[in-house]
């Protein structure tokens, strides 16, 4: 079965740490209706395209503009499915490849391996580098990709479909124009400094 009746989801996940947490089962419309919501750690069993759609509906905010919502952040899931489908169409036109494969490669490239936590010892706080769990790596990569797309299209003439397609393509090519790749490199640089 093909996703959106267009693209084959038989894509190989190269990163062995993320292989178990990126689900690519054959579905026509990746929608589980919260089937795995109550079970702990079961969101890894939700289809990865559905997780992208869910993350795109609530990408998060930065600064004082969080009160202003955008059209795709309204809770209309069918609208967000159309955004993802149009973005995948643009990816296929630009790269001439399967957009699911390009998206998986972007996730693997944008997933940080280390991050920083704060340890309090004797009233003083120290940053400490820690390794990311695989499920958290996927979550962080998804949120950085969607936030990058949202910030490059918010209050600009660029549509969210174009911004999402460009962000995924740049992240799959490990390009510095991708905000997910630049944030990942900055996070790993900080973790390396606080080791």
Defining traits:
2 strands; about 200 residues; 6 helices; Ribosomal Protein S7; mainly alpha; two-stranded antiparallel sheet
Describe this structure in words.
- It is built from six helices and two strands.
- The protein has helices at residues 48-57, 77-95, 99-110, 134-153, 160-172, 179-193; strands at residues 114-121, 124-131.
- It has one domain (19-193): Ribosomal Protein S7, CATH 1.10.455.10.
- Strands 1-2 form a two-stranded antiparallel sheet.
- With 195 residues, the protein is mainly α.
- Helix 4 crosses helix 6.
Question: Topology of this protein?
Answer:
Blueprint: H1 48-57, H2 77-95, H3 99-110, E1 114-121, E2 124-131, H4 134-153, H5 160-172, H6 179-193
Antiparallel strand pairs: 1-2
Helix pairs in contact: 1-2, 1-4, 2-5, 3-4, 3-5, 4-5, 4-6
Instruction: Give me the secondary-structure category.
Output: mainly alpha
Query: What is the helix tally?
Result: 6
Spell the H/E element sequence. Answer: HHHEEHHH
Q: Beta fraction of the residues? A: 5-15%
Distance between the termini: 46 Å
- Rg (C-alpha, Å): 17 Å
Strand order of the largest sheet: 1-2
CATH superfamily: Ribosomal protein S7/S5
Task: Kindly report the average pLDDT value.
Answer: 85
Work out the number of β strands.
2
State the CATH architecture: Orthogonal Bundle
| The first-level CATH class name | Mainly Alpha
Q: Main sheet?
A: 2 strands, antiparallel
Overall domain count: 1
């Amino acid at each position: 079965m093909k996703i959106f009746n267009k693209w084959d989801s038989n894509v190989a996940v190269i990163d062995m740490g993320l292989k178990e947490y990126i689900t690519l089962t054959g579905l026509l419309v990746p929608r589980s209706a919260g089937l795995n919501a109550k079970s702990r750690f079961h969101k890894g069993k939700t289809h990865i395209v559905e997780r992208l759609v869910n993350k795109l509906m609530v990408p998060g905010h930065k600064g004082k503009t969080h009160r202003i919502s955008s059209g795709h952040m309204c809770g209309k899931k069918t609208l967000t499915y159309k955004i993802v489908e149009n973005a995948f169409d643009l990816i296929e036109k630009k790269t001439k490849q399967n957009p699911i494969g390009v998206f998986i490669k972007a996730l693997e490239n944008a997933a940080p391996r280390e991050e920083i936590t704060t340890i309090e010892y004797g009233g003083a706080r120290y940053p400490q580098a820690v390794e990311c769990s695989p499920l958290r790596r996927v979550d962080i990569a998804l949120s950085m990709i969607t936030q990058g797309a949202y910030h490059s299209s918010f209050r600009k003439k660029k549509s969210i479909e174009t911004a999402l397609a460009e962000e995924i393509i740049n992240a799959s090519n490990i390009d510095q124009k991708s905000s997910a790749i630049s944030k990942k490199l900055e996070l790993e640089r900080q973790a390396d400094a606080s080791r």
